[in-house]
Amino acid sequence: MRQKAKVENYDAPAGGWGSLNAVMHILTQEEVALLGSEILLKQNKPDGFMCVSCSWAKPASPRPFEFCENGAKATAWEITGKTVTPEFFVQHTLTELRAWSDHQLEEQGRLTNPMRYDPVSDKYVAVDWNQAFREIGAELNKLDPHSVIMYTSGRASLEASYMYQLFGRMYGTNNFPDSSNMCHETTSVALPEVIGVPVGTVLLKDFESTDCIFFFGHNTTTNAPRMLHPLQEAAQRGVPIVTFNPLRERGLERFVNPQNPLQMIAGGTRISTQYHQVRVGGDAAAIVGICKWVIEADDKAIKYGEPRVVDVDFIAQHTSGFDEFAAFCRNQGWDEVERASGLTRSAMLEAANTYMAANAVIANYGMGVTQHKYGVETTKMIVNLLLLRGNIGKPGAGISPIRGHSNVQGQRTVGISEKTKLVPLDKQAKLHEFEPPRGDGLSTVDACEGILKGEVRGFVSLGGNFVRAVPDRSLMEPAWSGLRLSVQIATKLNRSHIVPGEVTYLLPCLGRIEIDQQASGAQAVSMEDSTACIHGSRGQRRPVAEHALSEPAIIAGLAKATLKPNPKIDWDGWIADYSRIRDAIERTYPDQFKDFNKRMFEPGGFPRPLAARERKWKTPNGKANFTVPKAAFAPPKESDGVYELMTMRADGQFNTTIYTEDDRFRGIHGSRYVVLMNPDDMEADGLKSGDTVTLVTEVNDGIERRLSELQVVPYDIPRRCIAGYYPECNGLIPLWHYAEGSKVPAAKSVPVRLFKDVPPEIIEGGEVPISAA
């Protein structure tokens, strides 16, 4: 039986004393209280290190404490005094460790030595770096490069990412799935088609001049808390903030700045002026309703000779497809839009009137949009809304996808992509005198399918926790043991490391916060934030382990052991001085990285040029494109007994890293195995708070996906929608259940049935039958 969660009401705002207490707790927990507080003063500063957590923008004039609660947790987690030495693995088999929780595994501390799996003892044993490189290189050269995956987590620097993709392509593969495949690949697919760039158009300074902010599907409280500062400042200026989200997230309701003594006493600032709890997957329909009202208001203005509501000049000069989109909106019935969105007509009209009253609007969105079957269409609907009034390419306006991990966007910029059209292969071939493979590689979903079929034979992971992050865990973990080679480059122990292939290596790397001393001195690295600004980062503390190498050094070691010598690439010279890697990046991408080494420590970062910011549209027709959604706004199917499950993250985690088993803002403590339900649904299904249930995915593919012993927690969530934690609920997501066009797992809308657990003691033989609640 799992430990039950303690559930209590928590009505304090985001930030404030709760955040201060959480920061002090994590510093103490990781045994770095004094050291951590000193290093935190350097976090997100122009002369310091960039946060290893989220990718939100860094201001040119930082606050004294330019970090958030989750950023402090990520820092403490990395610089912890706890270590996992070879002696740890002498004491524990991998079979034993597989029974540990995600939190228990990472909580052991930093990896210190390169290790190789010994299948006879079922333990990791220490291995010399040179021996590990030789053996891995030999294994890679026995494999077909097309059968090898080179995965990248969103933390790796621009320098490491560029080296990694170059090593892989010289080896002969374009299989470069990364974290983006699981979160914002939807953005990377949708935006180029409609505005000609794969990233957002908003800069941090735009929040200072905007007069309206829209939010769709993002929990800023835990996923990008530093964003609450510009939101609070906007709210204090009277800027309306209109939020669409199934759950009421605390940071989008109220925020107290812990750095402001008066606010700590007074109670903070209300953030959202409107909060619309759409049904799970109802965002596109809500936007259709808003656009419908805007267009009908414009029709009335034409009829009565009044000033137009839409931006006529912008639409005529810069866009295509307006007439078709306007006709589509006019033809939608309000009853259907209400049912599809889960909102009333009056709620959508309220949002539309606020939108029409503003001159400059920013639209933010997160994985509550991208991780849906129709996520690509929903993203395009957000663009439609902005285009109606010219809200792209002017100060204080634009589209703002809020990316997750700290450099997940930057990795794509320097070549981590399975899509060859996004990589300047001809330029790389010329600069480095080799012939790269030309066919598209495998995405995350493709890689998983290849592992299940036995077609993928090798997996090299530059960070991350792939096994835990992907869907269909019950299928993926057993299939993982069929890999010939698994190489895991990491700072801490996680689930992917304890599910071995035939030949498995665990290679400890330095973290970004550690001083990276090479032949020419201490090195700096760089990354790109959500607003496409590039920042330099310098390590601040001595390495936790003598034998840990930097990610670039590990990549160079693997490359030298695997590839034939190339006179154009001096791997040792690159490691001696990372500025030489940046020179190579600049030569490959001269427009994006002009004067890279000179500019990398500019306060606030230097922005990559983006054509859409200047209203230049690099689309096939040279226009920004309105699009007509095909299915994204459709009402839900009426399936008796079926719920829409959305996965979510807790206050005590970042992605697959679990800092604690608590979720303070939702009042849940001690367990992550819970399911949030609407009280009316609970009553209808004969459930009460604290009951345990089993979720079973409603699919007909011959595979049963279930998760048992989930504690029911009554919560403010739309009817027929439920919520559970990621990654615990990943096993309920079929691998094939993804966003059309981008293959991002549709983790925010999984059809499930819910069954009440029966205590085993009253069942003969101890079996627990599943019966409808």
UniProtKB/TrEMBL annotation:
The keyword Iron-sulfur applies. Residues 110-410 form the Molybdopterin oxidoreductase domain. Keywords: 4Fe-4S, Iron, Iron-sulfur, Metal-binding, Molybdenum, Oxidoreductase. Residues 644-700 form the Molybdopterin dinucleotide-binding domain. GO terms for biological process: cellular respiration. One of its GO terms (molecular function) is 4 iron, 4 sulfur cluster binding. Its cofactor is [4Fe-4S] cluster; Mo-bis(molybdopterin guanine dinucleotide). InterPro entries: Asp_de-COase-like_dom_sf (IPR009010), MopB_CT_YdeP (IPR037951), MoPterin_dinucl-bd_dom (IPR006657), Mopterin_OxRdtase (IPR006656), Mopterin_OxRdtse_a_bac (IPR010046), Prok_molybdopt-oxidoreductase (IPR050123), YdeP_MopB (IPR041953). One of its GO terms (cellular component) is membrane. Gene3D superfamilies: 3.40.50.740, Dimethylsulfoxide Reductase, domain 2. PANTHER family: PROTEIN YDEP (PTHR43105:SF4), RESPIRATORY NITRATE REDUCTASE (PTHR43105). Belongs to the prokaryotic molybdopterin-containing oxidoreductase family. This is Formate dehydrogenase. It comes from Bradyrhizobium manausense. The lineage of its organism: Bacteria, Pseudomonadati, Pseudomonadota, Alphaproteobacteria, Hyphomicrobiales.
